[in-house]
Amino acid sequence: MMIRLHNDDWGFETNCFVCEPTNAHGLQIPFFHDTEGGLVVAEFELSDTFSGAPTLVHGGVTLAVLDEAMAWACIAIGKQWSVTTETTTRFDRAVRVGSGYRVEAEVVDHVGTTMRAAARVLDRRGVVRAEANASFTTLGEAQATRIAGGAIDQRHRRYVND
Question: pTM for the whole thing?
Fold first, then answer.
């Protein structure tokens, strides 16, 4: 089953550069939790607004997509609010503007307050274009509320408390 992940499901507003559909200057990529596959996934195609070298998506933008997918994996799969503490990324092949891609992320380990996740960007043929591994520090309820500016409405946190 594929479940659409929404920022407002957590009861606070965000202007996320990668996933918020109302951010006119952002990527507006919708993410989904593939409950059967144990993955967070998204399909995306970026315009030359996000290019680095001509015809190529800027590496920092590609990394932002990978990081966002892993963060959603921590929330949807790991059931924890988390922040990135360290990332390693490998750019195997070019990610081109105007071409379609899929990002997939999963939680690979969770010990104490550290969660590790992995993500990859694949082209339409399934060839890996970029991949990342990251460590995340999980946040307790009070920390998550403080980061959100004290605006988390507990009634809306349905996904975390499944």
Answer: 0.87
